Amino acid sequence: MIRLFLFAVATLALGWGFSWLADRPGLITVTWQNMEIETSLMVAATAIVALVFAVMFVWWLIQTIWTSPHSVRRFFRARKRDRGYQALSTGLIAAGAGNALLARKMSARARGLLRADQEPLIKLLEAQTAMIEGRNDEARELFEKMAEDPETRELGLRGLYMEARRLGANEAARQYAETAVENAPYLPWAAEATLEYRSQAGRWEDAVRLLDQQKIANVIERKQADRWKAVLLTARATERLESDPKGARDDAKAALKLAKDLVPAGVIAAKAYLREDNLRKAASVLESLWKIEPHPQLAEAYVRARSGDSAADRLKRAEKLEALKPNNPESLLAVAQAALDTQDFARARTKAEAALRMDPRESTYLLLADIEERETGDQGRIRHWLNQALRAPRDPAWVADGYVSERWLPLSPVTGRLDAFEWKRPFGQLEGPVEEGSLSAETAIASLPPLPEPQPVEPPAEPRLEPVGQPAKVVDIEQPKAPSLSIVRDKETSPVEPAGKPKPEVAAVSAEKPKEPAADPFNGRPPDDPGVKDHEAATAPTTRLKLF
Q1: Phi, psi torsion values for 219, nearest 5 degrees
Q2: In terms of CB atoms within 10 Å, which end of the chain has fewer, N or C?
Q3: Please, is 156 exposed, middle or buried when counting C-beta atoms within 10 Å of its C-beta (0-12, 13-18, 19+)?
Q4: Element (H or E) spanning 9, and its range?
Q5: C-alpha radius of gyration, the chain, whole number
Q6: Count of beta carbons in the 10 Å neighbourhood of residue 202
Q7: β-bridge pairing 403-405 and 422-424
Q8: Alpha-carbon distance 255 to 290, whole Å?
């Protein structure tokens, strides 16, 4: 663009000059060796310009002829270099795609067309080709040679680090990362790897110092650096809580300034304040964090801040949390649990059912089962809530790389990644299909079995005398107008019976109470035992009914 502008300016200037000369005609006389040459000014100017262009052309022609051998060599060299870079590019693409045959072929062609000392990417192509072909020892040797060259040191250290990680040599990988950080502190992968290794070793001071250096060098984004520093400070505060509560409190407060929603930092800060008997500041920290991120660990730390508080005091604290964050499942569950401890079953049930409608989860159903057990003790209703808990979604937990932990950790135990734990529902549930939303909760509450109606208590029945011996035979007897009955305890036959009438035999019970034996003749067997009954029937006195 600049050259075009200069050319236009030069053309305009030349045209303006010729027009200026045309407006001012004149003659030029030149005398040279007794010869006088006379011409006009315009012709003289034109001749001078033509002469200048002729000289320039002749100079260019001579220069071209003089430098033609070098130009020819340069042309073929450039053509060869272009073919070499084309082979190198094709080989790198083939190595990335896993085509070992094409990568090896292009590597040999690139080495034949290019010089390895002038193009370090040839070593990279050879190392990657060796890796995808399974020649790991050769690849490692190539990476070591690259690490010795100042121009390819970073690339070689990166390859050695990845090979060490692949083989599980964590100590070697750590050393390669440390070396890369010392030589090139601006490498993000080296800084992150070194930070993770220092964190795994518990060197929190070194990790924080390295993170600050990376932040100043703009290797890590400011937001990410602040988050990681808050995690490191929280981890250090966790270790210092027992031995140095004041230092743990300072670290936790610094972490909360960098990440206001970091729940573990708030819990550590509150515990540190409680060890200093500063309940007001501990409650202030927990309340501030509760407004941002309601969490069950915050609720537990806040409600049970003082071990000597009564159940009623804990209920008041839970109600304060609910006032700070109303219509929230965590607030409702905190109040429900505190109300259960105070034996306020109606309120506990109401809050738990409200939390269930907002967020059906396993712990809510289990809480309802506890309420049912302590209030009614009805096994049918308890089993109903337990069955619902088996099908309900699991509660949120600290999860990192598929690993579920009961408490927060600064690093993932699977990959060692910093700030990997998240508070969310674990995946991989094995239960059947789950009904989600309010419909599931409403169905579970509506299908709760009713309490059984209390049965009326009957007064104890009066003891009655049972017939002994053979069952009585009921016989219709035509009685005389004035019959007289008498019960005779005699085994002998009664006097003359009325003629033509059969003699009825009816077993009756004596009105007199039999005397209890002095010793137990049945050896402790129950009275309803068949042997006891047979013995009583055999030994009981016989009564006969006689009609006169």
Answers
A1: -80, -35
A2: N
A3: buried
A4: helix 2-23
A5: 53
A6: 13
A7: unpaired
A8: 16
Q: What pLDDT is stored for residue 503 in this prediction?
A: 44
| Helix H or strand E encompassing 71 | helix 41-97
Tens digit of pLDDT for each residue in 111-169?
888 876 678 888 888 888 888 888 888 888 888 888 888 888 888 898 899 888 888 88
How much is the pLDDT for 528? 54
Parallel/antiparallel/unpaired status of strands 403-405 and 397-400:
antiparallel
The DSSP result for 86-152, as a single string, is HHHHHHHHHHHHT-HHHHHHHHHHHHHHS-TTT-THHHHHHHHHHHHTT-HHHHHHHHHHHHHSTTT
CA 108 to chain centre: 48
Whether the CB-CB separation of 65 and 90 falls below 8 Å is answered with: no
Long-range contacts formed by 279-283: CB under 8 A, 24+ apart: 279/305, 279/306
Q: Which residues contact 512 (CB under 8 A, 6 or more apart)?
A: none
Tell me if residue 449 falls in helix, strand or coil.
coil
Beta-bridged to residue 37, according to DSSP, are 30
Do 106 and 94 contact (CB within 8 A), yes or no?
Answer: yes
Q: How far apart are CA 8 and CA 22, in angstroms?
A: 21
What are the distances in angstroms from CA 366 to CA 139, 363, 530?
58, 5, 50
- The answer to whether the CB of 489 falls within 8 A of the CB of 543 is yes
What DSSP designation does 418 have? B
DSSP 186-232: T-HHHHHHHHHHHHHTT-HHHHHHHHHHHHHTTSS-HHHHHHHHHHH
Q: Using one digit for the tens of pLDDT, what is the confidence trace for 276-308? A: 889 999 999 999 999 998 999 999 999 998 888
Picking from 299, 294, 234, 221, the residue whose alpha carbon sits closest to that of residue 265 is: 234
Distance CA 200, CA 206 (A): 12
Q: How far, in Å, CA of 352 to CA of 367, rounded?
A: 7
**H/E element, 161:** helix 153-167
**Segments of the chain scoring below 70 in pLDDT:** 116-117, 428-439, 454-548
Find out whether 321 and 303 touch, Cβ atoms under 8 Å. yes
Pairing mode, strands 397-400 and 27-31: unpaired
How far apart, in whole angstroms, are the C-alpha atoms of residue 374 and residue 345?
8
Per the CB < 8 A criterion, the answer to whether 418 and 199 are in contact is yes
